[in-house]
Write a structure and sequence with these properties.
The chain has 156 residues and is α+β, with helices and mostly antiparallel strands. The chain is 35% helix and 16% strand. It is built from 6 helices and 5 strands, in the order E-E-H-E-E-H-E-H-H-H-H. It has a 5-stranded mixed beta sheet with strand order 2-1-5-3-4, sandwiched between helices. Strand 3 and strand 4 form a beta hairpin. It is globular. The structure holds FE2/S2 (inorganic) cluster (2 copies). One FE2/S2 (inorganic) cluster binds next to loops.
Length: 156
């Protein structure tokens, strides 16, 4: 199939690239831009491993074509840190053991960021609701809740 040119705004940078017209945002991020932090899981919208933010909202990148989002700002896990300075969520996840195999972690971090941006001091119920689409086979979720609470307690 003939590739077509698309322009995407990812982590603050504009990228114009040639991509297969049927390739999802997930495939373009990973295969064309080399941003492999976004994980390729079920490809069915069921696991949340591919979660990115589009204009600050959680989006399953396996279900979206890049043409659908235009020049909206895409944030991947690579865009979470501020240069060498990790995001408070990344620090808290490491300190609380909220990442084990780590496969769910990029999507989980981005969902947690969307939550804290909307609700700086979320309840456990709000946390559960927000990450309900991010499946984790390893942690049992308690450490993830504790990490989000720890990050929320830090001054921003
Ligand atoms: S890979 Fe997108 S939800 Fe599983
Ligand atoms: S840390 Fe392994 S799936 Fe979540």
């Amino acid at each position: 199939m003939t590739k077509s040119l698309i322009t995407l705004r990812v982590n603050g940078e504009l990228h114009t690239l040639a991509a297969e017209p049927h390739h999802t945002l997930l495939e373009v991020l990973r295969e064309e831009l080399g941003l492999t932090g976004t994980k390729h899981g079920c490809e069915l919208g069921e696991c949340g491993a591919c979660t990115v933010l589009v204009d600050g909202r959680q989006v399953l990148s396996c279900l979206v074509l890049p043409q659908q989002i235009g020049l909206a700002e895409v944030t991947t896990v690579e865009g979470l840190a501020n240069g060498p300075e990790l995001h408070p969520l990344q620090i808290a996840f490491a300190e609380e053991g909220a990442a084990q195999c780590g496969y769910c972690t990029p999507g989980m971090l981005l969902s947690a960021k969307a939550l804290l941006d909307a609700h700086p001091h979320p309840t456990r119920e709000q946390m559960a609701d927000t990450i309900s689409g991010n499946l984790c086979r390893c942690t049992g979720y308690t450490s993830i809740y504790e990490a989000i609470e720890k990050a929320a307690a830090k001054p921003t």
